[in-house]
Amino acid sequence: MQEMIKSKLAELLSTGAVTKVIGWKRGENFYDVSPAAFESVESLADFVYDDFCGANLSKFLVKEPGKESKVAVVLKPCDTFSLNQLIKENRVNRENIFVLGVPCEGKLSEEKMRVMGIVGLTGCKVEGDKVTVETLYGTETLDKNDVLLTKCATCHSKKHVIFDELIGETGEDSDVDRFVGVAELEAMSEDERYEFWRNELSRCIRCNACRNACPACTCEKCVFDNDASGVAAKSNANSFEENMFHIIRAYHVAGRCTDCGECSRVCPQHIPLHLLNRKFIKDINTFYGDFQAGADAESEHPLVHFTENDPEPSIVKEGK
Amino acid sequence: MQRIGVFVCHCGTNIAGTVDVKTVAEMLGKEPGVVFSTDYQYMCSEAGQTLIQDAIKEHNLGGVVICSCSPRMHEQTFRKACAKAGLNPYMVEVANIREQCSWIHKDVAEGTEKAVILGRAAIAKVHLNAPLTAGESPVVKRALVIGGGIAGMQTALDIADAGFEVDIVEKNATIGGKMAQIDKTFPTLDCSACILTPKMVDCAQHEKINIYAYSEVEDVKGFVGNFSVAIRKKARYVDETKCTGCGICTEKCPVKNIPNEFNMGMDNRRSIYIPFAQAVPKIATIDPNTCNKLKTGKCGVCSKVCGAGAIDYTQKDEIIRREYGAIVVATGFNMIDMTKFDEFGYAQSKDVITSLEFERLTNAAGPTGGTLLRPSDGKHPHTIVFVQCCGSRSTTENGKPYCSKICCMYTAKHAMLTREKYPDTDVYVFYIDVRTPGKNFDEFYRRAVEQYGVHYVKGMVGKVAPRADGTLHVQASDLLAGEQLHIDADLVVLAGAIEPDKSARGLATKLTASMDTNDFFTEAHPKLRPVESPTAGVFLSGVCQGPKDIPETVAQAGAAASKVIGLLVKDKLTCNPCVAQSDELLCNGCSGCEHVCPYGAITYETKEFMQFDRSMKPRRVASVNPAVCQGCGACTVTCPSGAMDLKGFSNRQIMAEVDAICK
Amino acid sequence: MQIEKKPLIVAFCCNWCSYAGADLAGTNRLNYPANVKIIRVPCSCRVNPLFILKAFQRGADGVIICGCHPGDCHYTTGNYYARRRITLLFSMLSYLGIEKNRVRLEWVSAAEGAKFAATMQSFAEEIAELGECKRLEDLRCKK
Q1: Chain B CB within 8 Å of residue A28 CB
Q2: What does the alpha-carbon distance between residue B26 and residue B24 come to, in Å, rounded to a whole number?
Q3: What's B54's domain CATH number?
Q4: Contact at 8 Å (CB) between B41 and B10?
Q5: B399 and B491: one domain?
Q6: How far is B354 from chain C (nearest CA, A)?
Q7: Do the domain assignments include residue B242?
Q8: Rounded distance, CA B418 to CA B425, Å?
Q9: Which parts of chain B have pLDDT scores under 70?
Q10: Domain residues for B621?
Q11: What pLDDT, in 10s, does the model give residues B49-88?
Q12: Distance (Å, rounded) from C-alpha A166 to C-alpha B95?
């Protein structure tokens, strides 16, 4: 698979069809795969597409000037939703990009393996439901479901919604209930929810990783960095700011969040941030009808739209 | 920091009664930036305004806070006063310490504390105010009048006489409205048609008036000076340009049993009809719900008899879009549905009628040719009972809480005319109160009682029950005598409450004009701006605003016209400068604001912006057309980056108010 | 001036309906608690969720947003957008375990002075019962 992608990218670069490729390359460790740009056929030697390519590359296109030059990007199915949303918001010029769709069967989380005691990873092979990992200390076979990235465990679609060319086949929408986690919280009492979120959000170190990774957070200047916005802050001074940062972050992407799960994936404090975004998605689906941000580049997102018969806020239930 | 002056108004004792104004002025004088603080009896008076102007000059004030009545009352007054002293009018903020403080709080300490906090919020806001300059927008020199009754016609004629084009949109096939159905008018008893129909003809013939009869307002866009209105011209199935109004078709049409709306259903019309002889425009209309040709494709008689070849069964509704500078609402009224009142037996007996039906029964052009006959058997009634306040001044579910205002007088008219024409008839009027405050009104009512011997009984009718012999058993109480009355009546006439036309509610939504709980349009100010709606450029004429008799309606129609003329003579209107503005450096170009803008005021352009590496990158950014923006602020909240802000109500200003209030 | 801390309520009122409704309550001398402080905004759609959070940060114990009845918005559609935004915000606050009754959205027309006063009365009572807002407070802003 990796070689097929590489040869296609090499073709694009060598013919001059694109001047840059956005993909992934390996870092110091085997599992340490990060986004990278490639500007020559030679540099593609470092290109990687494996089970640790969880990162969503669509956001990098926002910064591409690409007036005359074209950029190729390698996107997994879920990433294509983010790109569509960016195109809808005019953050990316569709004409200047070449989308190479690549199939995905769920990416792995080294962190989850580490929690299971598997360290010193040197190799990994996925076969069906099983994952065989090689470490400095030997070989082990694991259930794939146990080591999937959280976002992949509740993947909502394996279908590419936008691409110029596909390597392999595109998949189908999944029927996994991704709102289980939200529903569990909703079933709690207000006090229990408060305790839950205080426990989670109090760990926030305000590193801004969630914001920086989020493909919907692409503002020219983030309100948290804008002195005139009234909410600018570089750190969370107390519980209020912890709450406020996350409410505003989730609210800003409400109706635009494609549920790509990057926020939770990158959080160094393991705060389940996707549960905030998914709450909005669930509410929007319940109150205003099913909506999937990024499913197309035309439909209006629910917060710039209304119907005369929308429910009143009294629809908000207290839970238990 | 601004140099701020604070002016605390006593409003006589309205404010000073429950707010210690001296303390407020003193406390606010200590706020940061406040260089002058004082109190005065009436800030809005000339002396008060002079005081403000002098202080602006003497203390070189950059911002003014006035603690007084609601800004909805005098914000403009104070802005103008400050502008005269050379201060930008938008450097003025009003703290509402009357309506939202002194008038609702009885405790002086409490009222004073709240007034200080409200003052602080205004000071905090004014610190962030920036001088604003109002732009201008052009005025379309044409008015739209919605409704072609006496109110709409009078307004249209007055505007047209001033030289401006007027369109009248009337939902019925003819203009004329309710007044065309009335027989005589109180208190002069002159013939309604005789004074109305010439006006209808005037409207039709006036070169500046264009009548869209059988039409309705479909949608309204735009704003004062620049409304764009879509009018649905309903299909008449008759070519207006060809029909001569000869009426042959209305005699030959085989569908004969359609209740005639003009005569309140007391006789029949054909499926193709002209509402009445003096209809304007006098054009036949096919009722598509009953026409055989349109329903089944079989018939076509009217087409055959029409010498002008005007019948067109393929006609479709037509949407016309026209531009207007001003809109007048004159949608009028209807009587409420009397069938809901079981006690009056309206649904049970044909001889229980409404007063508008009575008008038709006594009208020479009515179903009986003007002879008062019982609808059931065509005999002369000898005992007639008039019941007042049927549903008016009622707190029941079916009734209306207000007084319908016209019923006392028209009932006196009906009673008097009946006694004059048929002296052998006994006439009873049951009333709660007789209300006759009008020129020559009480004299008129006294004549009915004293000269014509009408039996006025204070009390309500409890029950009207039809008897087997055709009479109506009326059970009522005489409150003054303290006894029950039983009257065998031949005819019972109900003075039903009037209510705004059903179309008014939908229209109000289209116009964004507000209504009260009874669906009457509300005025911009109940006393000082009674013919203007709170929506700029929308004016009110006639009963759509509240119950009125004909002279009041005509007077209000003229007043509305003069307001419209005052607007249309202007070449340019001053725009509200409190409009949205986009910060290009922050704008993402996401189009969120464009989607929520109800006025289409936001457009996008692509501009080049310098990047950190000094290269130039094109970016799509929003720009607001200040002449179109009305300043609602929908865009500001949609904008994720905060690029969009509203002048005069900026994010920072509102947050400063929040801070000051919560301090 | 006051020793006992009364709950503080911030009311955002749209200029055309609710603010006018509040004025009418005043004209009719309809009393409601003095701890309700009104901020005038052009339309309920001007109320940024941020303002609501800010109010809590600064020590408000309850926030109420009032606008024209749906369909009667002076700007045609503003309150429809406001309804969606505010509904989602309220839902999120409740999800985070913040008492959802601390926030309310009410439609009050210019003619409903009595409704305005009654609404403020009932909201103030509700907030008094909930007491001081602890779950969304910023201790730095407390005296």
Answers
A1: no
A2: 5
A3: 3.40.50.960
A4: yes
A5: yes
A6: 31
A7: no
A8: 7
A9: none
A10: 580-647
A11: 999 999 999 999 999 999 999 999 899 999 999 999 999 9
A12: 64
Indicate yes or no: CB of A308 within 8 angstroms of CB of C84.
no
Nearest CA among B357, B332, B285 for reference residue B178: B332
Task: Give B470-496 as a 3 state SS string.
Answer: CCEEEEEEECCCCEEEEEEECEEEEEE
Partners of residue B596 in chain A, C-beta under 8 Å = 304
**Closest Cα in chain A, distance from residue B588 (Å):** 6
Q: Buried b vs exposed e over B371-390: b needs ≥16 C-beta within 10 Å?
A: ebbbbbeeeebebbbbbbbb
* A120 alpha carbon, distance to own chain's centre: 26
C-alpha to C-alpha distance for B140 and B159, rounded to whole angstroms = 14
Of the candidates A265, A275, A262, A263, the residue with the CA atom closest to the CA atom of residue A112: A265
Regarding whether B211 and B66 lie in a shared domain, the answer is: no
Are residue B558 and residue B488 in the same domain, yes or no? no
Option in C47, C55, C72 nearest B509 (CB): C72
- Whether A221 sits inside 8 A of B587 (CB atoms) is no
Helical H runs in B489-579? Answer: 503-511, 550-568
Of all residues in chain C, the percent with pLDDT exceeding 70 is 96
E strand or H helix that includes residue B199: helix B192-205
- Residue B49 and residue B13 share a domain: yes
CB contact under 8 A, C77 and B105: no
**Nearest residue in chain A measured CA to CA from B645:** A229
| Residue whose pair of structure tokens reads 């057309």 in the numeric block | B625
Whether C71 contacts chain B with CB within 8 A: yes
The partner residue sitting opposite A251, judged by closest CB among C70, C89, C105, is C89
| Domain ranges within chain C, ordered by starting residue | 9-71+100-131
C 88-107 residues with CB below 8 A of B? Answer: none
**DSSP of B295-356, one letter per residue?**
HHS---HHHHH-TT--B-TT---EEEEEEESEEEE---EEE--GGG-GGGTTTT-TTEEEHH
Residue (of A135, A61, A145, A156) closest to A107 by Cα position: A145
Is A230 near chain B, with CB under 8 Å?
Answer: yes
Total-model pTM = 0.78
Is the interface score ipTM higher than 0.90? Answer: yes
Residues B229 and B288 in one domain: no
Q: Do residues B14 and B33 share a domain?
A: yes
Q: How many alpha carbons fall within 13 Å on the CB side of residue B416?
A: 21
Judging contacts by C-beta atoms under 8 Å, the chain A residues touching residue C93 are 247
Find chain C residues with C-beta within 8 A of B657's C-beta.
Answer: 39
- Nearest 5°: the CA angle A136, A140, A141 is 150
Number of domains in chain B: 5
Q: Has residue B136 been placed in a domain?
A: no
Is B170 a member of any domain?
A: yes
Does B474 lie in the same domain as B506?
no
Q: Which residues on chain B are in Cβ contact (under 8 Å) with C16?
A: 514, 534
> To the nearest whole angstrom, how far is the Cα of B619 from the nearest Cα of chain A?
9
Q: Which residues of A touch B585 (CB under 8 A)?
A: 220-221
With a CB cutoff of 8 Å and minimum separation 6, the contacts of B214 are B170, B171, B172, B173, B233, B234, B236, B285
Cα separation, B638 vs B596, in Å, equals 8
Report which DSSP code applies to B553.
H
Contacts of C76 (CB under 8 A, 6+ apart): B512, B598
- Give residue B336's region: left, alpha or beta (phi > 0; psi -120 to 50): beta
A257, two tokens: 């969040």
With contacts defined as CB-CB under 8 Å, which chain A residues touch B620?
A: 90
The domain boundary, picked from B453, B482, B499, lies at B499
Closest-CA distance, A307 to chain C, in angstroms, reads: 7
pLDDT, one tens digit per residue, over B201-243 is: 999 999 999 999 999 999 998 888 999 999 999 999 999 999 9
Task: Verify that B470 and B411 share a domain, yes or no.
Answer: yes
Assess whether pLDDT exceeds 60 at residue A319. Answer: no
What is the SS3 assignment for B574?
strand
